[in-house]
UniProtKB/TrEMBL annotation, chain A:
Record has Transferase as a keyword: yes
EC number: 2.3.1.39
SUPFAM superfamilies hit by this protein: FabD/lysophospholipase-like, Probable ACP-binding domain of malonyl-CoA ACP transacylase
One cellular-component annotation, GO: cytosol
The organism's taxonomic lineage, starting at the top: Bacteria, Bacillati, Bacillota, Clostridia, Eubacteriales
Signal peptide residues on this chain, from the entry's feature table: none
Catalytic function, reaction form: holo-[ACP] + malonyl-CoA = malonyl-[ACP] + CoA
Keyword Acyltransferase appears in the UniProt entry: yes
Gene Ontology annotations of biological process type: fatty acid biosynthetic process
Alphabetical list of InterPro entries matching this protein: Ac_transferase_dom_sf (IPR001227), Acyl_Trfase/lysoPLipase (IPR016035), Mal-CoA-ACP_Trans/PKS_FabD (IPR050858), Malonyl_transacylase_ACP-bd (IPR016036)
Enzyme class: transferase
Official protein name in the record: [acyl-carrier-protein] S-malonyltransferase
Keywords from the UniProt entry: Acyltransferase, Transferase
Superkingdom in the source lineage: Bacteria
From TrEMBL, chain B:
SUPFAM superfamilies per record: ACP-like (SSF47336)
Phylogenetic placement of the source organism: Bacteria, Bacillati, Bacillota, Clostridia, Eubacteriales
InterPro entries, per database record: ACP-like_sf (IPR036736), PP-bd_ACP (IPR009081)
Pfam families (UniProt xref): PP-binding (PF00550)
Record-annotated Carrier domain positions: 10-91
Name of the protein described by the UniProt record: Acyl carrier protein
């Protein structure tokens, strides 16, 4: 029986936004992990001093470190998960926190995004991702399926009844966002990061990343994990490794993953990001609650 | 169309001000009808969605976000006055707000 699920956020939150809600008593631990990780990886804590690719992955690693600090804080308070799920790169984060791989290896996986970005640049690919607020997965699918081929645009992630991520070619993403805005989206914006995570086109550009994910042996997770791709419960290291590999180029249904967790009996969700990022774009039914660091 | 009384209008205004004060961590009396929710309070669209959901629950409204989005194309939410006015219209017209 599952009652409590931990939810791990993906990349996207700026460090200053992540850290604003981190309580002072956790900042020492955060600084320790940050020094240790950035020292080992040769990244500058002054993020602007990092080269282009390094700067981006540095931000993402900060996100993982924040998750780790909050995760350990919850555990120290006796809040133990029965199950967990990771949203996008939250899969890497949960793999570290649930003991499948060392945290250092999780950071190394994130570093491998540099190879993917380099590969995309070398091939002159123009890719992007965008967010639509105010539409559900079904709304968007109905609106876009007749107008865009999956080769150029997919729904990268259905997050909730009002939050969807699009992924694909830059021009198609921009066109789709414009259309959604005209059709009543409350807000649309593009990431402008040059990558299209969760679009199948990423598969051929992320071979190094995918190979690296398989370059170590994964332990069975300390707590079961739910796949956000097929919504199966993962209890072996092999399954978690596969989840990490699929992550870059496979669309997500986060909304359905949360629904599945509810069906499994979960009523308490704990957002592991320090700023409650997951709780903002996720929704659960009225009998359930998403707790954030502020609530603990 | 649902009738709106002065009491309901005031209740909606209080609910909105209370919400932004709490979410944006500012004193309620620092917020005026001229305050810009994005620029002055740092609010974002996800907060706005939550406020819509809260209002729909409180007044038992069945409102589509796209109806509100289309209305906002005509009437941007630049000040708290705009926000209060829009929520009063949601109360009155529901999904038909798009035609107002």
């Amino acid at each position: 029986m599952y009652n409590r699920a931990f939810l791990f956020n993906g990349i996207g939150s700026k460090p200053e936004k992540l850290l604003v809600n981190m309580p002072p008593e956790l900042m020492d631990k955060y600084e320790f992990y940050l020094d240790s990780a950035f020292g080992r990886l040769g990244l500058s804590k002054d993020l602007e001093k990092n080269s282009s690719y390094d700067g981006r992955v540095a931000e993402w690693i900060i996100s993982l470190i924040c998750d780790r600090v909050v995760f350990e804080h919850y555990i120290s308070k006796g809040i133990i998960p029965d199950i967990g799920a990771g949203y996008s790169s939250g899969i890497v984060s949960i793999s570290g926190c649930f003991g499948c791989v060392p945290h250092e290896f999780a950071h190394d996986i994130i570093m491998m995004n540099r190879a993917t970005m380099r590969c995309l640049d070398e091939q002159g690919e123009e890719l992007d991702m965008g967010i639509v607020i105010g539409f559900s997965y079904n709304d968007i699918e109905e609106l876009l399926s007749a107008r865009f081929s999956p080769d150029v645009l997919v729904i990268g992630s259905g997050n909730s009844k009002f939050h969807v991520m699009l992924s694909g070619r830059t021009e198609a993403v921009a066109e789709a966002l414009d259309l959604c805005q005209r059709e009543g989206a409350l807000k649309v914006f593009s990431f402008g990061t040059g990558v299209a995570y969760h679009h199948p086109i990423m598969e051929k550009y992320s071979r190094e990343y995918v190979d690296f994910c398989a370059s170590t042996e994964y332990r069975a997770p300390d707590y079961p994990m739910l796949s956000i791709f097929d919504r199966e419960i993962m209890t072996t290291g092999q399954q978690v490794m596969r989840e990490n590999q699929l992550n870059v180029y496979t669309p997500i249904r986060w909304d359905l993953a949360l629904k599945k967790l509810e069906e499994l009996g979960v009523t308490e969700f704990f957002d592991v990001s320090p700023n409650g990022a997951v709780s903002k774009f996720s929704r659960v039914n009225r009998k359930c609650k998403i707790y954030t660091l502020e609530d603990v | 169309m649902r009738e709106i009384t002065e009491e309901i209008r005031q209740e909606i205004k209080d609910m909105i001000f209370d919400y932004y004060a709490e979410e944006c961590e500012v004193e309620k009396d620092e917020i005026t009808m001229d305050t810009n929710p994005q620029e002055d309070l740092g609010s974002d669209s996800l907060m706005f969605v939550e406020l819509i959901e809260m209002t729909a629950d409180k007044y038992d409204l069945d409102i589509k976000l796209q109806s509100i989005g289309k209305y906002m194309l005509k009437a941007p939410m630049d000040t708290m006055s705009d926000v209060v006015e829009m929520f009063c219209k949601i109360y009155q017209y529901g999904n038909d707000i798009v035609n107002q």
